[in-house]
UniProtKB/TrEMBL annotation, chains A, B:
<comment type="similarity">
    <text>Belongs to the diphthine synthase family.</text>
</comment>
<dbReference type="InterPro" id="IPR004551">
    <property type="entry name" value="Dphthn_synthase"/>
</dbReference>
<keyword id="KW-0949">S-adenosyl-L-methionine</keyword>
<dbReference type="Pfam" id="PF00590">
    <property type="entry name" value="TP_methylase"/>
</dbReference>
<dbReference type="InterPro" id="IPR014777">
    <property type="entry name" value="4pyrrole_Mease_sub1"/>
</dbReference>
<feature type="binding site">
    <location>
        <position position="164"/>
    </location>
    <ligand>
        <name>S-adenosyl-L-methionine</name>
    </ligand>
</feature>
<keyword id="KW-0808">Transferase</keyword>
<protein>
    <recommendedName>
        <fullName>Diphthine synthase</fullName>
        <ecNumber>2.1.1.98</ecNumber>
    </recommendedName>
</protein>
<comment type="subunit">
    <text>Homodimer.</text>
</comment>
<feature type="binding site">
    <location>
        <position position="9"/>
    </location>
    <ligand>
        <name>S-adenosyl-L-methionine</name>
    </ligand>
</feature>
<feature type="binding site">
    <location>
        <position position="229"/>
    </location>
    <ligand>
        <name>S-adenosyl-L-methionine</name>
    </ligand>
</feature>
<feature type="binding site">
    <location>
        <position position="84"/>
    </location>
    <ligand>
        <name>S-adenosyl-L-methionine</name>
    </ligand>
</feature>
<dbReference type="GO" id="GO:0017183">
    <property type="term" value="P:protein histidyl modification to diphthamide"/>
</dbReference>
<keyword id="KW-0489">Methyltransferase</keyword>
<dbReference type="InterPro" id="IPR000878">
    <property type="entry name" value="4pyrrol_Mease"/>
</dbReference>
<feature type="binding site">
    <location>
        <begin position="112"/>
        <end position="113"/>
    </location>
    <ligand>
        <name>S-adenosyl-L-methionine</name>
    </ligand>
</feature>
<dbReference type="InterPro" id="IPR035996">
    <property type="entry name" value="4pyrrol_Methylase_sf"/>
</dbReference>
Length: 258, 258
């Protein structure tokens, strides 16, 4: 048996009662923290917080699955991951590999930035288009597919959740906004300017979480505190959404008149 | 203080440790179950399961907010809701009303069908377009906006999460598929036919949850067990997604060749 247990967003208090029980009952607990991570507790300290030994796996060990599948063949194995467990492709692939080998699998769902960020800002989840990820630009490689997807959402009036790279370190909202403006310079399709309304969600799920909305030119130098950061580009706002952005995220009141 | 505590998907085991603590520490616990509900426990039995008296509110009491806000002015009030708390517009409106009155608010996030359903099917969440809701048709009123939104997602190659009405009772996947075919008859834009690949998620988060994919003509008479049901219309499938649908949801193997 292989059980994927989501840890949610912040620390071990975000674990569900079901997830806690699965961890307690497991023969072996593995942990994976390169696709996503908790902000309130270091992977190395998780074992103590959960009262269980946790074997933290390398990226390769999760991707090839050998060790996990070998153990899950005869033992009750739990793999703990931040957020909701099946958001990462790697975990789906691992689950398919397990089922192919006759190993039963289970999922213990948990909260995800995909619904937490819209909720914190008061934007309606069903008005979001496709989620995009913003990678760190590499030397000689500046991918702009995120820009293209954002443009499609904007043309449809939909909001966009923009997830920021966490490798080799978490990207800040400030860095992300700079990258978006650089994309604009390359593509020039008028998605981003200093007057674009944009929102930052920082440390979703944490007691010191933050939701702030404003014009990109003002936000780009804002101090949002420590990571993880997420951006949301609002599309066409319903009046109730504009009001929520003003009241809950400090957006300029003039957006109510638009 | 007004704290919105998400209960997750199935029963009280899906509550997070943080959520449980907030309920224990609250002066008053209100519950709201018309926007969404748990499938593993009746609202009336929740109080016993949680060891707290829970005052279940009517739709009107949540929407006008009077009682909740009056109590939250001086007391530590928790409002428990199924899923992730801010998915419903009503809760965002209530939160805005509270903040306007100087009442601090907090959100305890939890799992949502929005990420659970893609995960159960092995479909990538970032390849979903806008989520749509399918209401029960009323006499003389057969809204087809869901069809239009689905068409946009299909044209973009994106998957669509189709949430089914829960009022006055939970719509079954079978009923939903019939409604989609009726929409097709009205609109005739070639989204749905008996050969359309479609997926059903039933009882997400429950021990007896089910994920099944197949052709609409076969699925429409399928037995998916008791509600809640959710539909997913897959868009363009990555090979790994097609493989997941076959291995995890019993889709016909021929979809691997497409």
């Amino acid at each position: 048996m292989l059980t994927f247990v989501g840890l949610g967003l912040y620390n071990t208090e975000d674990l569900t009662i079901r997830g806690k029980r699965e961890i307690e009952e497991a023969d072996i607990v593995f942990g994976e923290f390169y696709t996503s991570r908790l902000i309130g507790v270091n992977p190395e300290d998780l074992g103590e917080a959960l009262g269980r030994e946790i074997k933290i796996l390398s990226r390769e060990e999760v991707e090839n699955g050998k060790l996990i599948l070998k153990e899950a063949k005869s033992k009750n194995v739990v793999l703990i991951v931040a957020g909701d467990p099946m958001i990462a492709t790697t975990h789906v692939a691992l689950r398919v590999m397990a089922e192919e080998r006759g190993i039963k699998t289970k999922i213990v769902h948990n909260s995800s930035i995909v619904t937490a960020a819209p909720g914190m800002l008061g934007l309606q989840q069903y008005k979001f288009g496709r989620t995009v990820s913003l990678p760190f630009p590499q030397e000689n490689y500046f991918p702009t597919s995120a820009y293209d997807f954002i443009k499609i959402n904007q043309n449809l009036g939909l909001h966009t959740l923009i997830l920021l790279d966490i490798n080799p370190r978490p990207m800040t909202a400030n860095e992300a906004m700079k990258i978006l403006l650089e994309m604009e310079e390359k593509k020039r399709e008028k998605i981003f300017s200093k007057n674009t309304l944009i929102a930052v969600v920082a440390r979703a799920g944490a007691p010191n979480s933050l939701a702030r909305a404003g014009y990109l030119g003002d936000m780009i130098n804002g101090d949002f505190g420590s990571p993880l950061h997420t951006l949301v580009l609002p599309g066409k706002l319903h009046f109730a959404e504009a009001e929520a952005l003003v009241k809950l995220a400090g957006a300029p009141e003039e957006i109510l008149d638009k």
